From TrEMBL:
The keyword Oxidoreductase applies. Belongs to the methylenetetrahydrofolate reductase family. This is Methylenetetrahydrofolate reductase. PANTHER family: METHYLENETETRAHYDROFOLATE REDUCTASE (PTHR45754), METHYLENETETRAHYDROFOLATE REDUCTASE (NADPH) (PTHR45754:SF3). The keyword Transport does not apply.
Amino acid sequence: MKRQPIVPQPTEALLKRLFDSGGSVPLSFELFPPRSQVGRATLYETVDRLATVASNGFSVTMGAGGTTRTGTYETAVEVAERSQRPVTAHLTAWGLSCDQALEAAEGYWAAGVTRILALRGDRPRTTQMPKPSGFAHATELVEALRKIHPFEITVAAYPEKHPEAETLDADIDHLKEKLEAGASTAFCQFVLDPAAYGRFLDRCADHGIDVPIIPGLMPLEGWERLRGFARANGTNIPNWLDQLFAEAEKTPELSAHLATAATVEQARRLIAYGAPAIHVYSMNRWPTPLALARLLGYASQ
């Protein structure tokens, strides 16, 4: 029998190169304020598990209309103290008066939380209360924050367009306004098609934007819930993911493994498209985010 020639192994496989780099792609993890003592225990475990791989720190969300303002502050301070990592506190313009927003910012600064994600915010779905007279847009909030302290300000970006924007170019113009007002970084709404992020980077460059634009990565667990969230936000849902998780339903024992593998593939492609870092929407859970970090080369400490 004729011997088959030996096929050389690839030396530039992206995941291997990332692993060999020892976690050189910065990671941050988004958390939300817990609503119960059980939730708080879950949050603490997640922070403890992810602290050693959170090279870019954590962020803590604020509910629609500023509804978790106190919880956001308490959680941000607790996470910063517990993890010894920088924390980015979300601060919304909608739902808070100007004084309330700036009072919250002063509280963060006094507590040593010097990173803020400045957002317009969403309207609460159930409240009947009128909107307080506050900052109308995130741009105004950024300008006000810049005047009171030298915060590191991040803003939101939408690779597939904010649902309320008329066009993607108009949305990118708005992003540029927020950056020119004093923000230095942007966190992206998650995408399920990493190519959309790559195209977005190109469009931003065409608009003269050159700051770090960090993609959001949602672990692909609980597919039906995540799919509904994506549809509500106008996020494109690739057919291959629908097909993958339809197969997972036939063999539930495989679901967690497929979710982790697909999440790593998403991260790999985002990095290939030029992601300078990755912001992981952890949903206060640690297993898949930690598995991702390990596969990107982050070692136990």
